[in-house]
Here is the input.
Amino acid sequence: MSVTAAQGFVAGGLASGIKESGDLDLAIVAAAPANARLTTAAGVFTTNLATAPPVLVSREHLRDGHASAVVLNSGNANAATGAPGRRDAQRMCELTAAGLGIDATDVLVCSTGLIGIPLPMSPIEAGIPALAAALEAGPTGGDAAAVAILTTDTISKEACATFEVDGVIMTVGGMAKGAAMLSPAMATMLAVITTDAAVDPRALHAALGGAVDSSFHELLIDGCTSTNDTVLVLASGAAMVGGRPIGIGGSAFHAFSDALAEVCSSLAVQMAGDAEGASKLARVHVRGARTTADARLAARAVAGSQLVQCSINGEDPYWGRVLSELGASGAAIDPDRVEIAYNGIVVCRDGVAAAHDAVTVAAGMAEREIAIDCELHLGRGEATVVFTDLSYGYIDENRATS
Amino acid sequence: MSVTAAQGFVAGGLASGIKESGDLDLAIVAAAPANARLTTAAGVFTTNLATAPPVLVSREHLRDGHASAVVLNSGNANAATGAPGRRDAQRMCELTAAGLGIDATDVLVCSTGLIGIPLPMSPIEAGIPALAAALEAGPTGGDAAAVAILTTDTISKEACATFEVDGVIMTVGGMAKGAAMLSPAMATMLAVITTDAAVDPRALHAALGGAVDSSFHELLIDGCTSTNDTVLVLASGAAMVGGRPIGIGGSAFHAFSDALAEVCSSLAVQMAGDAEGASKLARVHVRGARTTADARLAARAVAGSQLVQCSINGEDPYWGRVLSELGASGAAIDPDRVEIAYNGIVVCRDGVAAAHDAVTVAAGMAEREIAIDCELHLGRGEATVVFTDLSYGYIDENRATS
Here is the structure.
């Protein structure tokens, strides 16, 4: 149960025929009719300048901080499709709005799949009305929606957290897809999150920004930032009818923000765990950088290095590559002060090899999860990036589109 | 024949025992005794802050623009080795100087191989004097030196060009190693180039900077910038005894610069062709960027993309990934104006799919060399980057150090 865990939401998934495989490829998440009018929404989108039409349309529809439905398709990214692509994205909103009895400007749209191919509109023209008529509350609807947004993912990703404000338990639930083109600046990833709290649009936007920074933005699979990356959150207010919406600051805002961050983190880790072809889940933590920005640069350089990724694949604790990436990252480092540890065991101190128990380090490298800690001893900047190994499987998945 | 193609140089290679395989691992390139005093030198070094000790020592020895010998070892990078590593690099220069009867400050030093392991000095203490006593002019010495600097390379890289000044034919010859950690900011690559022209140190430095910009800096294999990258050039003046050294500007300078650039380009292409595990040699050319800097950003983003590299491996002309990388590169682009061609056939125009002959495009993708042209239609900035596909072989080569 994911996007329907929170009260006041319905969802569903359908095989419309966009995917030749016959798999589910169309999803809708919507506020239940009683909640639609008051539902607030916020989004974080790709920074890629080759922005896909659905991103352009969703941004436009989010300007007023209100939206009550999201329509999503997999199997085609509707990217690099020009003006016809913009019309198609708009049309997806209109069809959804007609099916739900709401305004098209209150519908957000996401697409994921191959770039550069016009969206096949006839399955969509038939599919959206059928799906809109069959949306369900509870697990059935949410689980189907989570499956319908997958592309090369092998499993659906769902997460849920609760928080309490003035004795009322509220829920945040979400779904995501993404298994490559993952980078700290996001990627071919989509996530839709819902909550039954009532949240002021500005507070929703602020909380989402923070949650994305500490989750999806700390994930790097191949450093590729996609044309379609989108993270959306909708707040129905169904659990606090009549209550005052949560605004920025204060304990309710922090409780909500924490729950939202927890859901985003869980989804991000699930995405890394399902990364195309990956056999390892690695986490590099840089401490003691001159600034946070430097720490991020350094952590991303290590995580994004094909050589480091290959070492992880080969279970080789070759810290020389980590040191080299720190040095080439653009972050300030004093190589003579760098300390590097694999799974908590220091293998490099003061920039040179440190005596260590090689058998224990080797045993740690054989685990599925690997932790690399880098202490720069220059300041207080810290950052973490989650990444994976580079494997035959990644190449197999990406060498051909068909 | 490479570093000994130009008059006034001797060279040699020796198996000292640094490599357990028993392969050649020690090389010296030196001006012949008659030319040593007047030989000028220049270098371009890694920008990695985790700079290897031999780079620090060579930079120091190059300050006066004079050096007459280079000693190089493979099998150990003498990187991340701290103060002992600096003493070892200095000691390599002293041993070479003693063998050749010159000052240690006129010796440059390069190391390549694994990072973080102290240099084994006993084979070096014995090997350098033996090698210095046996240096040869002509092909024998140069070819052995070119082999002795290799690590994961499968073939040695040598190049040669001539130019004419006032009726005198002069030669530029060089050798290089490098098959991974190649990035536009250079990498685990070493190159030594010699010429029998007499060249003023400032002019030598200027010509080398230009040549490196249009060759090694346009090469990207895995985006990794190493701790040891070094390109050196020595000018003996042996072909123009008594002539005035070539200074900056003027036709002699341009003739020399062109020959130097030709040698560097040839070595760079040989390095790309021998890139670890690569089955394809690709070249992305970005035109019409707002600035040259933007063109470089865009070309490097395409070349450095694991997804694009996988597409090339799979012979898949998936231009959507190229467009996505252009959009995420940080360069200014207007996606609606982008044109992308594979091997001269336009597959994307105005940012959307362009009708094209898919059979001809597919046939082109099956070739070993692939050209990707991106026209941004925003200005006059241009840049080229040479890269390779991402293959099982790359992973095999880099997943373990032993």
Summary: Chain A has two domains: 9-273, 281-398. Chain A touches chain B through 67 residues (CB under 8 Å). The radius of gyration of chain A is 22 Å.
